[in-house]
Amino acid sequence: MTVVIDCNILVICLTSRSPYHRIYQALVNEKFNLAVISEIILEYEEIITDKYGIETTQAFLALLAELPNVQFHHTYYQWNLINSDPDDNKYCDCAIASKADYIITEDKHFKVLEDIPFPKLNVISIDEFMEML
C-alpha cells in the first residue's frame, strides 16, 4: 500500500507520546510505502523544525532518505484540484504521480476530491489509516 501523508498528520505521529505514533513505527518497519515529492519534503522540514527543532528534523529527513519504502517522485504537471487552499495541491499531485492508494489527512480542504471523478483520489482520516495498520 502506498500513501501520501499530509504534514500535520506526520508531525503528530513523530512523538512516542502520541496515540498515532504507531504510524511512524509502521513507516520505519516498512509496513507501507510513503510517497513524497520535493515540495512535501520542504513542508515536512519547515513544520517539524518549528515543532521539534533542527536536530530532530535533520534526523527524520535522513531517515526518510534511507528507508527503502519511501518513494521519491517528480511531478511534471499540476492538477490544481483544491482551489480553497492551493498549497494542498502538492499532495494531490504526488498521489497521482505515485499512484498512491490513499492520501492521509484531516484537512477539510480535501473534501472537494470526493466530487471529482477524475483523477480519482482516495482520502482517508488518520483513524481510518490506523485501523488499516
Structural account:
With about 130 residues, the chain is α/β, with parallel strands linked by helices. About 45% of the residues lie in helices and about 10% in strands. It has six helices and five strands, in the order βααβααβαββα. It has a five-stranded parallel sheet with strand order 3-2-1-4-5. Helix 1 crosses helix 2 and helix 3 (about 40-50) packs antiparallel against helix 4. The radius of gyration is 14 Å and the shape is globular. The N and C termini lie close together (about 10 Å). The mean pLDDT is about 95.
Layout of SSEs?
Blueprint: E1 2-5, H1 7-14, H2 21-28, E2 33-36, H3 38-52, H4 54-66, E3 70-72, H5 89-98, E4 102-104, E5 123-124, H6 126-132
Parallel strand pairs: 1-2, 1-4, 2-3, 4-5
Helix pairs in contact: 1-2, 1-3, 3-4
The stretches of 5 or more residues where confidence is low (pLDDT under 50) are none
| H/E element order | EHHEHHEHEEH
Largest sheet: 5 strands, parallel
Strand order of the largest sheet: 3-2-1-4-5
The assigned structural class equals alpha/beta
What value does the average pLDDT take? Answer: 95
Total DSSP E strands? 5
Number of helices: 6
Name the beta content range: 5-15%
Radius of gyration over all CA atoms, rounded: 14 Å
Helix content percent band: 40-55%
Question: Globular, elongated, flat, extended or rod-shaped: what is the shape?
Answer: globular
Termini separation (Å)?
Answer: 10 Å
